[in-house]
Design a protein that fits this description.
Largest sheet: 7 strands, mixed
Helix content: 25-40%
Number of domains: 1
CATH architecture: Alpha-Beta Complex
Number of helices: 6
Structural class: alpha/beta
Shape: globular
């Protein structure tokens, strides 16, 4: 089995705009870079992930040996859809899409996402069980999967799995649940990034 990871990056002034009331633009950019570095590090330490790719307008300081896939520039879902299609052509048996704002995610949690059988999609919801923080798709079975990140993406992704005749396994994990979008989420980031 070969498992690849795709990490979408949102760069620029729009990154983490909901934190603008408590962090200025340079602080938000520093936070985005630190969280991305943590997620990349966790993926590199995973026993099950053999290759990591980024998709977005910029690699945000990540090493040049991590491929940056072309971003069509129309938002998160088109970027992920495009990256997934590009990676699927390379022949991995599974692809995991991992949010870049998971400052407490662990390699072990990513290993769980990589482990389901070939007939199963694994979904890691956010702390409210409404969003999707990571999703793991078997290939070729899920090659036509349509991504729906955003509002109610957890339910939409479960429905899309069913549409393709695939089981949906839900993966819960402390680090997988704790994305950082709102000011009240910042303690999770500060603790994980050593900024208490």
């Amino acid at each position: 089995m070969t498992c690849w990871a795709i990490i979408p990056i949102k760069a620029g002034a729009d990154a983490k705009s909901r934190l603008a009331g408590v962090l200025d633009a340079p602080e938000r950019e520093a936070l985005v870079r630190a969280m991305l570095a943590h997620v990349v590090s966790a993926a590199q330490a995973s026993r099950m992930i053999s290759r990591i790719c980024l998709v977005g307008p910029s690699r945000l300081g990540m090493p040049e040996d991590i491929p940056l896939l072309a971003d069509p520039g129309n938002g998160l879902n088109p970027a992920v859809q495009s990256a997934f299609a590009q990676v699927a052509l390379e022949g991995p048996s599974r692809v995991i899409i991992i949010a870049a704002d998971l400052p407490a995610v662990t390699p072990q949690e990513l290993d769980l996402l990589a482990a389901p059988p070939a007939s199963t999609i694994a979904i890691a919801p956010d702390r409210h069980e409404t969003g999707t923080n990571a999703i793991s798709l078997p290939l070729p079975a899920a090659r036509d999967f349509i991504f729906a990140f955003g509002e109610d993406s957890f339910a939409k992704h479960k429905a899309e799995a069913e549409k393709h005749g695939l089981k949906a396994e839900i993966i819960f994990g402390h680090g997988l649940e704790r994305d950082v979008d709102e000011p009240e989420h910042l303690p999770d980031a500060k603790a994980a990034l050593g900024k208490e």
